[in-house]
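Hi R.,

As promised on Friday, here is the backbone we talked about, encoded as structure tokens. Could you run it through your design pipeline when you get a chance and send me back a sequence?
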């Protein structure tokens, strides 16, 4: 385990089993990770699914962490949270899911290995990642992609809206 604290950013999403509640549960579980502190939470967003459109809308969010874990250790913990919450990684790609936790970026680690690419390769094109990320880290520069706010302007706002507090979802 590394001893230095550094920021990491996680995209959160789901569209099954009361997705708003599942995203909140994911935040709670992130707050319990070893050698990690949950320091930032984005607003919740209702988004159109990526991939097959014959599925419910998603709830998406982002979390800002301070961690002493390596990217590989943090990813293992994220996958453990997904599994504990009922995620089956054998599901259809871009299909419906209870929860999805993606490691978007961890300071100081650019990795391209089987099973782990950091920064996340799709970050610059996914408004459902960029809008929540802009809530918590608008000036963040993601190596190889650019600043979050600049990426957000290129990604557009099609199919995404802030989830109203009173909206049942």
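Update: got your reply. Pasting your designed sequence below so it's all in one thread:
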């Amino acid at each position: 385990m590394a001893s230095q604290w550094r920021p990491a950013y996680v995209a959160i999403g789901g569209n099954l089993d009361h997705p708003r509640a599942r995203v909140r549960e994911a935040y709670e579980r992130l707050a319990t990770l070893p050698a990690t502190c949950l320091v930032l939470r984005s607003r919740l967003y209702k988004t159109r699914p990526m991939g097959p459109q014959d599925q419910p809308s998603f709830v998406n969010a982002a979390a800002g962490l301070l961690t002493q874990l390596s990217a590989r250790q943090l990813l293992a913990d994220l996958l453990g949270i997904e599994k504990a919450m009922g995620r089956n990684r054998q599901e259809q790609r871009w299909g419906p899911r209870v929860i999805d936790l993606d490691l978007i970026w961890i300071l100081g680690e650019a990795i391209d290995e089987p099973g782990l690419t950091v920064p996340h390769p799709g970050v610059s094109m996914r408004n459902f990642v960029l809008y929540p990320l802009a809530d918590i880290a608008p000036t963040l520069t993601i190596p190889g992609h650019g600043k979050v706010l600049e990426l957000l302007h290129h990604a557009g706002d099609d199919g995404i809206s802030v989830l109203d507090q009173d909206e049942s979802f």
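One thing I noticed while checking it: Helices lie at 19-30, 71-84, 127-136, 148-155.

Thanks again,
M.
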